[in-house]
Amino acid sequence: MELRRDERPAPSVEELIEAEPGEPREVIAARHTIAQLNREHATLNAQHDAYAAAYIEEIARHKATELHVAALEARLLASQQRGVMESARAAGAFAAASVSGRR
Question: String of b and e for 79-94 (b: at least 16 CB within 10 Å)?
Answer without folding.
Answer: eeeeeeeeeeeeeeee
